[in-house]
Amino acid sequence: MGDPDSARSLIHIGDIINLIIGVLVFLVITVFSLGIGIIVGWIPLVIAIWTHMRVKDALELIDAGRYREAKDKVMIPSIISLLFNSLIGGLIILIGAVSLPSENVQEVPQGAGEVF
User: How far apart are CA 5 and CA 105, in angstroms?
Assistant: First the structure.
């Protein structure tokens, strides 16, 4: 469907935006609110860190040519991030995941090349 390199770049950029917004929201909530705000402030940070760990694993799968598994690994965290953490970061990760090819790269066995 799409170019794996551009999809990888989109997922990586969305992850960085998601981490930055998660940390900023955590800092704003904990600095400007007392009491219950400190408890609630951890939610965007935890979502950002969880999404980052899943994206990191997905990027390794993309590098290995296992696009379907990478797409499956990053879809749920991107939707949760889209809803609860960062609209922009989650949307960019989701667009990158959707633009990944649907099938994995087939490895050509050694010696099975073209014969001239």
Answer: 13
